[in-house]
Automatic annotation (TrEMBL):
EC numbers on record: 6.3.2.1
Taxonomic source organism: Streptomyces atrovirens
Catalytic reactions of this protein: (R)-pantoate + beta-alanine + ATP = (R)-pantothenate + AMP + diphosphate + H(+)
Name used for this protein in its record: Pantothenate synthetase
Binding site for ATP: 27-34, 148-151, 177, 185-188
Family: Belongs to the pantothenate synthetase family.
């Protein structure tokens, strides 16, 4: 399948629409993670719908000293990958097309959630991101827009903007795509040297350590809840040799766990990575409520996000995984 390159909003408006339009917004340098988004969009739009991929490196969301100038621009390869993944069109406007007359005077403000974590590390980033997303939603007029869960705070803010400002579009989050070794796919991974890439694996390893700690705690608590409390039933367990296992399950399940244990398990991996060559320079490790990205307490129940950001050399990377607290099921 060949994707049509469109450079202007007028060209996009001129396209006939016969079904639902699904849009995947990118800054280019497409990889398998983007391809997964496009394939998902194709499945949602169906054979009668249309999939549009936007490619625009948005200057508003890059701060001073960030990598706007060296951000990879690979439009020809992007068009090829987008077409192979099922896109009908690639909308790659110029900065003048998106921001006629220069940077906009009126912008979308991310609010308090946009000042936490990524927002604190990159002041103004989310205001710039939401402004361009709002503009691209107006320009492309989709029925559905898809975003990767790797940028969890971005996804949460887009959902909040769409809800708060009554955008008539459905927002779909698509799970993070990873390399075989666990590293989350990112356009910035190409900046990493082999040694830096080995260090960068600590981001996903820390998240997996936190997830595994939580899953083990949940499994042990579920096991302990099944252990009989009466003497007669305890004696019955002892007769079949399970009393020691039951006691061990009780002992471990009643030790410190929950969010604090998840953070501790993840931080242990990150602390070790800080001593590698080259080292990992941690920006933050956070376990947050996805509704507002505030840190959760030890009594928290419900969906949460374990998020990490760090620099390896000159490259800044982010990653996250979802977790669920308050049930005996393993973390999602």
């Amino acid at each position: 399948m060949t994707a049509t390159l469109l450079r202007t909003a007028a060209e996009l408006r001129a396209r006939a629409r016969t079904g639902r339009r699904a849009v995947v917004m990118t800054m280019g340098a497409l990889h398998e993670g983007h391809a997964t988004l496009i394939r998902t969009a194709r499945g949602i739009a169906g054979p009668d719908g249309e999939v549009v991929v936007t490619v625009f490196v948005n200057p508003l969301q890059f701060g001073a000293g960030e990598d706007l100038d060296r951000y990879p621009r690979t439009l020809d390869a992007d068009i090829e990958l987008a077409g192979q993944a099922g896109a009908d069109a690639v909308f790659a406007p110029s900065a003048d097309e998106v921001y006629p007359g220069g940077e906009p005077q009126v912008r979308v403000t991310a609010g308090p959630m946009g000042e936490r974590l990524e927002g604190a590390a990159r002041p103004g980033h989310f205001d710039g991101m939401l402004t361009v997303v709002a503009k691209l939603l107006h320009l492309t007029r989709p029925d559905i827009a898809l975003y990767g869960q790797k940028d969890a705070q971005q996804l949460a803010l887009i959902r909040r903007m769409v809800r708060d400002l009554n955008f008539g579009v459905e927002i779909v989050g698509v799970p993070t795509v990873r390399e075989e070794d666990g590293l989350a796919l990112s356009s910035r991974n190409r900046y990493l040297s082999p040694a830096e890439r080995r260090t960068a694996l600590a981001l996903s390893q820390a998240l997996f350590a936190g997830r595994d700690r939580h899953a083990a705690q949940q499994a042990l608590r579920a096991r302990a809840s099944e252990v009989p409390s009466t003497r007669a039933r305890a004696e019955a367990l002892s007769a079949i040799g399970e009393s020691r296992a039951a006691a061990d399950a009780h002992a471990v399940a009643t030790t410190a766990g929950g969010p604090g244990a998840v953070r501790a398990a993840a931080r242990l991996v990150l602390d070790e990575a800080a001593r590698l060559t080259p080292p990992l320079d941690l920006d933050y490790l956070a376990l947050v409520d996805p509704s507002d990205f505030t840190e959760i307490g030890d009594d928290f129940t419900g969906e949460a996000v374990l998020a990490v950001a760090a620099r390896v050399g000159t490259t800044r990377l982010i990653d996250n995984i979802p977790l669920t607290f308050g049930t005996f099921g393993a973390a999602s």
